[in-house]
Automatic annotation (TrEMBL):
Residues 49-72 have a biased composition (Low complexity). It holds the Pfam family HHH_3. Residues 44-80, 153-179 are annotated as: Disordered. Gene3D superfamilies: AF1531-like domain. This is Competence protein ComE. SUPFAM superfamilies: RuvA domain 2-like (SSF47781). The lineage of its organism: Bacteria, Bacillati, Bacillota, Bacilli, Lactobacillales.
Length: 241
């Protein structure tokens, strides 16, 4: 205690001056420190908020892109429900074109620029429904048609005797409506028959386009690769109505 008392007596003036100076500094600088803390305290959260906003915008943009891609995919899926047909004869732009599966011959003519002035549309069924790989032939006036096209009226209309036979078969065979019609079946329908794969289905369609409609189920054996064994396995599944 004596040492502390002596120290105080010797240095009390300096201690008082230093203490006063420190107090003055605190009085002058304290508000500025508080203001700085308040300023930085408000501005610091701003950056994360801006970052979150930016990220949200990015995510939103990304989502929009995904929706657009989905819509684009949806459209591609619609386009995938299409078929390819070969247009020949008296048309402005003959060739292979892609059409929707549920369209008719008149829509094909519009797509190829229409029929020429020499075309004989009286020989063509413009309402004939399209099937994949169909040959659409538009004959000229006075032309003796050598091409078997299913859209031609001459190939589409059966004789009177054939019509009566067809009606009789339908009446006597209640399952006839569920059979695959060789003259109008798509490739997918043909591949459902016993022993018929993609290749044979293509051959059946090609034969039909080249030779016209099948007159009887037995004509199927004229297609390359289809013999008695395969025909026997699917005979009760087909018709030519």
């Amino acid at each position: 205690m004596e040492k502390l008392t002596l120290f105080w007596e010797e240095h009390k003036n300096k201690i008082i001056v230093i203490s006063g100076a420190l107090l003055l500094v605190l009085i002058l600088v304290g508000p500025k420190i508080k203001a700085a803390n308040t300023l930085f305290g408000q501005s610091t959260p701003t950056q994360p908020e801006e970052l979150v906003t930016s990220e949200s915008s990015t995510v939103s943009s990304s989502s929009e892109g995904e929706v657009q891609q989905s819509n684009s995919t949806g459209q591609s899926m619609t386009k995938n429900q299409s078929i390819t047909v070969d247009v020949k004869g008296a048309v402005v732009h003959p060739g292979v074109v892609t059409m929707q599966a549920d369209q008719r011959v008149d829509a094909v003519l519009k797509k190829v620029g229409g029929a020429t002035a020499q075309a004989d549309l009286n020989q063509v069924n413009l309402a004939h429904r399209l099937v994949d790989q169909m040959l659409i032939y538009i004959p000229a006036k006075g032309e003796e048609v050598q091409v078997n096209s299913p859209v031609l009226v001459s190939n589409e209309q059966p004789g009177e005797g054939e019509t009566q036979a067809s009606q009789t078969e339908t009446e006597t065979d209640p399952t006839a409506e569920s059979k695959v019609n060789l003259n109008s079946a798509t490739k997918e329908q043909l591949t459902q028959l016993n022993g018929i794969g993609d290749k044979k289905a293509d051959q059946i369609i090609a034969y039909r386009q080249e030779h016209g409609n099948f007159k009887s189920p037995e004509d199927l054996k004229n297609v390359s690769g289809i013999g008695d064994k395969i025909f026997a396995a699917l005979a009760d599944q087909i018709t030519v109505n």
